[in-house]
Amino acid sequence: MQIWKDYQEKNKDKFLNELLELLRIPSVSARSEHKKDMQACAEALKTRLQEAGADKVEIYPTAGHPVVYGEKIIDPSKPTVLVYGHYDVQPADPLNLWHSGPFEPVIKDGKIYARGACDDKGQVYMHVKAFETMSKTNTLATNIKFLIEGEEEVGSPNLATFVKENKALLKSDVILISDTALISLDTPSMDVGVRGLSYIEVEVTGPNRDLHSGVYGGAVANPITILAKMIASLHDENNHITIPGFYDDVVEASAAERKLMAEAPFSEEEYKKDLGVNELWGEKGFTTNERTGIRPTLELNGIWGGYIGEGAKTVLPSKAYAKISCRLVPNQTSDKITEILINHLKKIAPPYIQIKAELHHGGEPYMTPIDSNGYKAAAKAIETTFGKQPIPVRGGGSIPICALFEKELGVKIIFMGFGLDSDNLHSPNEKYDLANYYKGIETIPYFHKYFAEQ
Amino acid sequence: MQIWKDYQEKNKDKFLNELLELLRIPSVSARSEHKKDMQACAEALKTRLQEAGADKVEIYPTAGHPVVYGEKIIDPSKPTVLVYGHYDVQPADPLNLWHSGPFEPVIKDGKIYARGACDDKGQVYMHVKAFETMSKTNTLATNIKFLIEGEEEVGSPNLATFVKENKALLKSDVILISDTALISLDTPSMDVGVRGLSYIEVEVTGPNRDLHSGVYGGAVANPITILAKMIASLHDENNHITIPGFYDDVVEASAAERKLMAEAPFSEEEYKKDLGVNELWGEKGFTTNERTGIRPTLELNGIWGGYIGEGAKTVLPSKAYAKISCRLVPNQTSDKITEILINHLKKIAPPYIQIKAELHHGGEPYMTPIDSNGYKAAAKAIETTFGKQPIPVRGGGSIPICALFEKELGVKIIFMGFGLDSDNLHSPNEKYDLANYYKGIETIPYFHKYFAEQ
């Protein structure tokens, strides 16, 4: 539509500058010291939604960080699209590995570098600007609702309550999310599933205080050594997870789906080169795409204990800690896997040490069918602007709230992501390509148009 | 000797206050930000040695922290005692576990709480005050030399050069060190050996950057998992160290020595209760005292990698690190064990990751005979003030410079320590009992007297 193109071309710089402003707010949900930044970020989004044309925008407090809600109802008889996204970001550490400040966005080689550039401020803001495009040109074909939360990166602990208490407010015909990736601008793809998550923290205590490793070493269990032995035992020689019952509920992907996955363009050599590794690692019997898509995993996200400063300290520490998370596939459930994992760790803990293991957060896996109206509208929108049909793929990440959305609101979720796997999500130097940002803004209005036409 | 007793009784408070002043200087050798404190501590010791009666005191610069040297030569034909000690201390972390500031000494229940209270400022200062006692009462029976270094806690990297270049200055008939422990004031003991040390740091690199654990987890080796597997493999199910060649040079203790060790008072129940553990851990076939005395060990002193802050971050980290140290017994050598350890780690490192392993510092084990003039003088001194013969024991800790002292200076080293194993050396809330401090000051002059009489 020429009218959209013209509006977007004219406002290109404004679309970018507004995003950069949003990226300057360090809205790290995991850190209590950023509480004020979270509020500031919610306020900024409220203003932008109002300017874009929303009739009603509210900041709803929760037990944690606030939810931003906005809507424009053009005609109650028309279909309603609920756009979900999040304004919170992952912590930026390790800071020393960033080439520029995580909250001082810079543009280099056509890419925006900042924490949240892609995940998810950049992607959620495409929807605000696509909405503005339709609203300012009087071409909005659907009702539109925005639900932008501030706790996605910490497992959405308060969103379920908000959704349950506001079903009428959130009533819609489809939920549209841009928080996933494309294979590339040349090879568009759409996620048809996201994995679930169980994230726990483990504390192993040996002696009741830090000890001199010469005086006591060799006679008292070292909690680091014990924790290492426990961690080492969680994968066998084929990199299968050894926890009894872990795979019990896994729905194996069909031969047809695995065949389709194998056809997606993938170069193991390029993948290894990009990551700087000589050999890939993973569960025997599965390809790389299968390992990150259709298989559950167990990863160490952090470990610490003893002296970790400069130089040497001959200490036998009292405690060692680890953060461990599992990605889950259909039909695994977060509660069950968390329980299995914690119980297993307690069971294998030797009598020399004490162990504490606690849930940080969890979320269920989610799959969306490829024959729904929403999926078809999104695929057609992508075909319109990319000139190619998107390939359906399974995403490796998690959007914990998806399963609950479908259960409570009774509608399907469509993942129309415009990021790239190489965007350094959750890592130093997160980036978002300007080309992907603008491509998203260009594509999204077609989704609304095609969804309304069905 | 009544004259000593009187002098010490009269100066009791002064002896304590001067030590507290010394403890207020945060002389942490491992941390470059304490360079000025190291110099200040050396200056303070210089002043105190001069006040105590030394004829000559010098601060010698080294490539690292300075060495403090002091002497009083009463008669070149009399025997000379070289007192060795160190004014540097271990880092104080974890700070949150201290009940009072590590460099704000407090006295509670008859104990001085501060970093370095026992190791080694408290113990080295006993010698300064014992020297003052003899000097001010004109009863010094030997020549005395002080060599107080500032790098013991980082492996004495520059002391060997200093010793080799100053053999004439350091010429003596015996070296006396108080940097070890007694079983208790009721059961005096003397160390007849200290263990050697190999301290290394390991860096394991997986992918070239931190990754999103959902997008990449399961397909790329996690350096924490790999490091844990490597650490786990270093001890077998009997807690023997699995590194090929590790035990090759170990001189097994004789049945007679093991029998003698078994006779030293030791309550496993009290030991476990003091440490707060339900079960002890250690090499099969050896008792607790053997494990910490006559056997080599491998301990994890620190581990870190990934996200270690508050809350959750779903990262698959690029790197994981560990600090590992081995305690060595006769005739193991630090160079050989370090080489064996590093080569073994490189050999077992799987092809998915890169590994770097580097020496922090090392030191040789050392044994002293119980029939030397020095040992006999020390035993007699202890018998005089404790009313009991000391039990010879093997210490678990390390004083890296001992083997070099004997090689370069050609004299035996005597360990006359007054600390307790429960002094929380290298740990939060390090302490030194006032009773032990004063007992040391009382006992040391007898050593000089008896050594001169031989």
What does this structure look like?
Two copies of one chain form a homodimer. Chain A has two domains: 2-194 and 365-453, Zn peptidases (Aminopeptidase, 3-Layer(aba) Sandwich); 196-257 and 294-363, Alpha-Beta Plaits (2-Layer Sandwich). In chain A, strands 1-2-6-3-7-18 form a six-stranded mixed β-sheet, with helices on both faces. The first copy, chain A, is α/β, with parallel strands linked by helices and 454 residues long. The first copy, chain A, has helices at 2-10, 12-23, 35-52, 121-136, 159-165, 223-232, 255-263, 268-275, 288-293, 334-348, 373-386, 402-409, 434-453; strands at 56-60, 67-72, 80-86, 106-108, 111-113, 143-149, 174-177, 181-182, 189-194, 196-205, 211-212, 297-306, 315-316, 319-328, 354-363, 366-367, 391-394, 413-415, 419-420, 431-433. The longest helix of chain A has 20 residues, at 434-453. In chain A, a hairpin with a 6-residue loop joins strand 1 (56-60) and strand 2. Chain A is built from 13 helices and 20 strands. At the A-B interface, strand 10, strand 11, helix 6, helix 9 and strand 12 of A face strand 10, strand 11, helix 6, helix 9 and strand 12 of B. Chains A, B: Its EC number is 3.4.13.-. Chains A, B: This is Dipeptidase. Chains A, B: Keywords: Dipeptidase, Hydrolase, Metal-binding, Protease. Chains A, B: It is an enzyme of class 3 (hydrolase).
